[in-house]
Structure formats: C-alpha cells, structure tokens
Amino acid sequence: MNRRPDSVVVCVNNRFSASRPSCAMGGAEAIADALEKGIQERGLGIVIERIHCLGECADGPNLRIAPGGNFYHHAKLADVPAILDELEALLKA
C-alpha cells in the first residue's frame, strides 16, 4: 500500500432474497458498527464508508481498507480486532 489508509469501505448491501447472498445477510452492518466503535476508541481518524456493492456478493461480507489496502472476504465480527490492529500499524508506518 502506497498511502496511509483514510477509510474502510464496507459493503452493507441487502438483496432481500434468501436465495441470493448479500453482505448485509452475513452481518456487515454489525461489522461496520464495531469498526466505527474501535476506530473511535483508538483515535485512528479513519472513516467507515458503507456502500451497496463491492461486486463480490457470494464472498461477503466484504470490506476494503482504502486507498489500495487489503480486501477482506467472508469478514466476521471476530475479525474486527485484527483489522483495527492492521489499521493502527499502517498509520504508524
């Protein structure tokens, strides 16, 4: 990654159909909420951008550290502390 992160893009799309996967069905809103809380608690100054599709619905929940950072597929609430640690490390680099 060339630049320091300034945001985390989290897909929160909900397709409202059990037969079609979506990030929201996998808990993306709770992940975004937990990231926002952790970012605030750690004073990281990074914004959570909730968007409605990263084009990887079957692999969701999906999120990406921006600009140009890691892309996470099948994200879970349990991943949030490690993502926050990564953000903190990138900001110190």
Description of the molecule:
With 93 residues, the protein is an alpha+beta fold. Helix content is 30%, strand content 17%. It contains two helices and four strands. The protein has a four-stranded mixed beta sheet, with helices on one face. A hairpin with a 4-residue loop joins β3 (63-66) and β4. It is elongated. The N and C termini lie close together (11 Å). The model has no long low-confidence stretch (mean pLDDT 91).
CATH topology grouping: Glutaredoxin
Percentage of β-strand residues: 15-25%
SSE succession: EHEEEH
Q: How much is the average pLDDT? A: 91
Please tally the helical runs, counting DSSP H or I stretches of 4 or more residues.
2
Low-confidence stretches: none
Radius of gyration, CA atoms, in whole angstroms: 13 Å
Task: Specify the structural class.
Answer: alpha+beta
Brief synopsis:
The protein is an alpha+beta fold. It is 30% helix and 17% strand. β3 and β4 form a beta hairpin.
Secondary structure blueprint with pairings:
Blueprint: E1 7-11, H1 28-42, E2 47-51, E3 63-66, E4 71-72, H2 80-92
Parallel strand pairs: 1-2
Antiparallel strand pairs: 1-3, 3-4
Helix pairs in contact: 1-2
What are the main properties of this structure?
four-stranded mixed β-sheet, Glutaredoxin, 30% helix, 93 residues
